[in-house]
C-alpha cells in the first residue's frame, strides 16, 4: 500500500517542475540539490510512480508528473492564500514580497518608494527582479509586476502610481551639427540610429504621434543595443539618434550632452502601474506596498 506524501515534498516537486531545474529549485527552497534529489526519490517511492525524468543537464515531469503538477498547483495556491489570510491578523506585515519589473521602473522604485517602504516595514523581505521580457507573474511565482500601463495584461488588476511617461528621440549636438533639421519621423530614415533589440530578439520599432497622426518607424543604423542606459550613452558619444525613456535622457539633457529631436512628435503616455492577479487573496505585504506607492505619489 502506497504511503501518503507530505506537503513539503509536494511543494518541492512543484517547485522543481516550475523551475525546470533541481539547482534553481534547491536555491528557492533553501536546501542542497542532493537533499532535494533524495526527497524526490522518496516521494516517488511513496507514490509508487516515477514523477520526473532526470538527466545530467535537465529535469522534466513524466506523464504522471504532469498530471500531479496540474492538480497540485491550484491546491498549493489556495493553501498559500489561506495562510496569507491568517497572516493578515498580525499587526505588522511580514514575509517575502516578490515583484517583477523593468529596469526603468526599478530605478523609480529605488529612488521614490523602496527606502520608505523598507524603513516602515522591517519584517518584509523585498525581492525585486528586473528583466526586459514580459512574463507570466503567476506561473513564475511573483506577487506582482510593475510595467508601463500599456504593457499590463488585461486580466490583471492595475494600480497606476507614476502619472505619465514619455519616450524621446535624442542626439548629441555634435552629431546634429551640419545636418538638416529633422521635421518628421520619416527624416530619421536618413540618419544613423541606435536601435533597440527586444528580449525576444526583434528590433523595436519607434512610435510617434502628433495631432492624432501616428507614425511607426523601423530605424536604420549599425549599432544595436539591448539596454536603454547604454543607448543613451551611445547617443551622447555621437553614435547616432536614440529613442529612450525621458528618465534615462534627462541627466544628459540637463548637462547639454544631448538635445531633443522631433520633440513635438513625442507625447506623454500613461505611466507605471503595479499589477497583480485578481483571483488571489492579496497578501498583507503586497497591500502594504500598494499603500506605500499611493503615499509616495501623493507627496
Helix share bin: 25-40%
The chain-level mean pLDDT equals 88
By secondary-structure content and strand pairing, the structural class works out as: alpha/beta
Largest β sheet strand count, sense and barrel closure: 6 strands, mixed
Provide the low-confidence segments as ranges. none
* Structural Rg: 24 Å
The DSSP helix count reads 10
Instruction: For the record, give the distance between the C-alpha atoms at the N and C termini, rounded to a whole number.
Output: 64 Å
Coarse shape: elongated
Q: What order do the helices and strands follow?
A: HHHEEHEHHEEEEHEEEEHEHEEEH
Number of strands: 15
Sheet-strand content, in percent, reads 15-25%
What does this structure look like?
The chain has ten helices and 15 strands. Helices cover 38% and strands 24% of the residues. Strands 7, 8, 11, 12, 13 and 14 form a six-stranded mixed beta sheet that branches. Strands 4-3-5-15-6 form a five-stranded mixed beta sheet. The chain has a two-stranded antiparallel sheet with strand order 1-2. The chain is α/β, with parallel strands linked by helices. The mean pLDDT is 88. A hairpin with a 2-residue loop joins strand 9 and strand 10. The longest helix has 25 residues, at 63-87.
